[in-house]
Every structure is written in structure tokens, then in C-alpha cells.
Recover the amino acids of this structure.
């Protein structure tokens, strides 16, 4: 009787275990069926790679020709380079024009006050036949205008205008030379380097390595900003 009871319990346990395993297998299969299947046509993410600019120097562009043209006619070298012509040539001639006006005005006033000084030093009004009578007739209105000025004041005014006249002439030579040098440098870049017109810049955080005398025991790096220019 006991043997039959044990056999019955063993059989019931075996059937129960088999049913449980079957249910687990079916649940795992159902779960596997519900998982999304990979789409073979789905595109793989690829980061965009920025194309680096390429430069093509012009070996036929002559820096010596650019500087020769600028020495002959201001702005001619800039026209040859074709870089920033719209503002470089007007700036050159605006500067030369202002200096040219200063030369003419300073020389005119220098001659005026020089004549007034000479007339004042005569101690009176020149008469016909006197040395400075022609100057007196030419500047008669100015003589009356500056009648209260002494000879020292008139001499200082004459010296100031003479100095301005000389400085203006030197400035013209400097501007002429600078624009020729600029034309040569620009032509040299075109001939050998060709800088890109994109002059953008990028700011990003960075760590700066301190010099030995400024480093601390905590860290030899300090936070900072890195500015990268695109030339």
C-alpha cells in the first residue's frame, strides 16, 4: 500500500515538473518572438567629417611685379593682387589726398608768415622800391589782420607751418612705401601660401600648463580658454 502511494506521488511530481518546464519554454519563446528584429536596411549612423580646405598657390603670380607697379602708381599693385581692392585703393588715395592738401596748405601759410615776419622786422610799412614791398602788396590784407602780433609770434607760426610741410612730405613717402610693401606681401602669400578668406575662430575650454615658478602643489594646470583661428 505504501509502495503504491509513493509511486503515485512520484508520478504526480514528475508530471508537474514537466508541465512547469514546458510553460517556461513557451514563455521564453513568446518573449523571443516579441523582441524587435533588426532591419537589415537600417542606415548606420556615421558622423559627418568636415572637409578640410585646400589651397592652391598661384606660382605664376609675381611679387616683384606687384611691388614695381605699386612703386610706379600707388594702388596698382593692389589691383594686380585683386585682394581687398575695394577698400585698399580708396584708403591709399584718401591718405595721399589728405597729405597732399596738408603739403599745399602748410607751404602757403609758411610763405605767408615768413613774409609777415620780414615785413614786421622792417619796423614799418615798406615803400615802393623797398626789398619787401612786393610781399607787402601781396599780403596787404594779412598785414592788417596780424598787425597786433609781434615778430616772435609770426616767426613761430612760420616755423610750425614749415615743420608741418616737411612732415607731410615725409608722410607721403612713408604711405607710398607702405602700400608697396603691402602689395609685395600680399602677392607673396598668393604665390606661395594663399590664405583662405575664412577668418573664423573657435573658443573652447582648455587646461593651461603653468610655468614651473607659478605651479602649486595641488596642480600644475589651470583652466582657461583656447581660441583657434581658421586662416
Amino acid at each position: 500500500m505504501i509502495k503504491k502511494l509513493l509511486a503515485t506521488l512520484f508520478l504526480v511530481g514528475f508530471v508537474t515538473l514537466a508541465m512547469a518546464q514546458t510553460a517556461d519554454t513557451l514563455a521564453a519563446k513568446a518573449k523571443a518572438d516579441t523582441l524587435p528584429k533588426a532591419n537589415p536596411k537600417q542606415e548606420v549612423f556615421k558622423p559627418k567629417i568636415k572637409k578640410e580646405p585646400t589651397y592652391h598657390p598661384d606660382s605664376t603670380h609675381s611679387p616683384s611685379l606687384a611691388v614695381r607697379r605699386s612703386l610706379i602708381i600707388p594702388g596698382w599693385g593692389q589691383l594686380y593682387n585683386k585682394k581687398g581692392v575695394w577698400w585698399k585703393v580708396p584708403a591709399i588715395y584718401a591718405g595721399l589726398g589728405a597729405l597732399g592738401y596738408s603739403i599745399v596748405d602748410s607751404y602757403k601759410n609758411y610763405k605767408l608768415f615768413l613774409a609777415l615776419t620780414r615785413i614786421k622786422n622792417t619796423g614799418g610799412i615798406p615803400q615802393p622800391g623797398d626789398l619787401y614791398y612786393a610781399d607787402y602788396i601781396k599780403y596787404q590784407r594779412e598785414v592788417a589782420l596780424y598787425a597786433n602780433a609781434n615778430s616772435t609770434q609770426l616767426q613761430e607760426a612760420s616755423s610750425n607751418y614749415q615743420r608741418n610741410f616737411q612732415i607731410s612730405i615725409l608722410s607721403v613717402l612713408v604711405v607710398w612705401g607702405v602700400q608697396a610693401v603691402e602689395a609685395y606681401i600680399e602677392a607673396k602669400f598668393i604665390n606661395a601660401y594663399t590664405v583662405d578668406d575664412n577668418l573664423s575662430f573657435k573658443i573652447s575650454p582648455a587646461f593651461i600648463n603653468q610655468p614651473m615658478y607659478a605651479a602649486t602643489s595641488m596642480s600644475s594646470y589651470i583652466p582657461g580658454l583656447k581660441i583657434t583661428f581658421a586662416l
